[in-house]
Amino acid sequence: MDKNRQEVLTEALTHILAERLVSLHWLFDELTIVIRANDVCSISGILRDHKDLGFDTLIDLCGMDYSTYGDETNALGQSEGRRFAVIYHLLSVSHNQRLRMKVFAENNDFPAVDSVTDIWPAANWFEREAFDLFGIVFPGHSDLRRILTDYGFVGNPFRKDFPISGYVEMRYDEKQKRVIYQPVSIEPREVIPYVIREQNYGDSHVD
User: Fold this and answer.
1) Does the domain at residues 3-144 carry the CATH identifier 3.90.550.10?
2) Which of 106, 117, 118, 164 is most buried when burial is the number of CB atoms within 10 A of its CB?
3) How far apart are CA 58 and CA 48, in angstroms?
4) CA 107 to chain centre
5) How far apart are CA 95 and CA 128, in angstroms?
6) Which residues, other chains included, contact 112 with Cβ-Cβ below 8 Å and sequence gap of 6+?
C-alpha cells in the first residue's frame, strides 16, 4: 500500500470514528486500530457500511491473552492492565484495503465483548473458538458453546496460565466400555538435550 492510500485511510478513520478511536498505528503496511469494548457493535457497523471504508468482509477473529506482556503493552497505551483482547481482521473488497481492529475486554475475571455476528455472520465459529480457547464471552451470540474441545473439557487451553499437560486425561475403559476422564498421570519433567561434538566441530579448517 503506497503512502497516499495510507494517509487516505488514516484520515477517514480519524474523521469518522473521532473520539471513539482509542489509538491507531501502522506497522509493516498494516493498520491497527484500538477501540473500546462498548463501541464494538456500533463501530463495526460503521466500518462495514460507510462508503469511505466498506470493510464488508471479516477474514478472521481471534482471542489474545496479554497476561505476560507486562509494561510493553501498557507503554503503547493499549492494554492498561486488561488481560484479554479480541482481534478482528477486516477486508474492504471495494477499496482493496485491510484493517486490524483490537478490542480489550474490560473485566479480566469475566472477559466479554459483544458479538458481531449480526454484522459479519462469518464471526459465528470464530467467536465460538475464542470462547472455547480463551474463555471470552460474546453476549448476543445465538449459539455460544465449545467448538474444538470436548464437551467435558475443563478450562481454556490457550490462556497463559493453563498447564501444558492439562487438568485431566481421557482413556477408554475396557470394564465400563466407555471413555472416562481421570487426573493427569504424566509427571512434568524438564528435558535437557545431551549434545556430543567433535573437538574441532564448526571450525573453518583443521590444522
Assistant:
1) no
2) 117
3) 10
4) 16
5) 29
6) 37, 105, 106, 136, 137, 138, 139
For 149, other C-beta atoms within 10 Å of its C-beta total: 14
pLDDT (tens digit per residue) in 165-202: 777 777 788 888 888 777 777 666 666 766 666 666 66
pLDDT tens for residues 25-66? Answer: 988 888 999 999 999 999 999 999 999 999 999 999 999 999
What values do phi and psi take at 70, rounded to 5? 65, -140
**Is the pTM value of this prediction over 0.85?**
no
Residue-by-residue DSSP string for the chain? --HHHHHHHHHHHHHHHGGGEEEEEEETTEEEEEEEGGGHHHHHHHHHH-TTT---EEEEEEEEE-TT-THHHHHTTS-TT--EEEEEEEEETTTTEEEEEEEE-S-SSS-B----TTT-TTHHHHHHHHHHHH--B-TT-TT---SSS-TT--S-TTSTTS-TT-SEEEEEETTTTEEEEEE--PPP----------TTTT-S---
- Residue 115: closest CA among 125, 18, 106: 125
Do the Cβ atoms of 108 and 58 come closer than 8 Å? Answer: no
Whole-angstrom CA distances from 176 to 67, 171, 180 are: 41, 11, 9
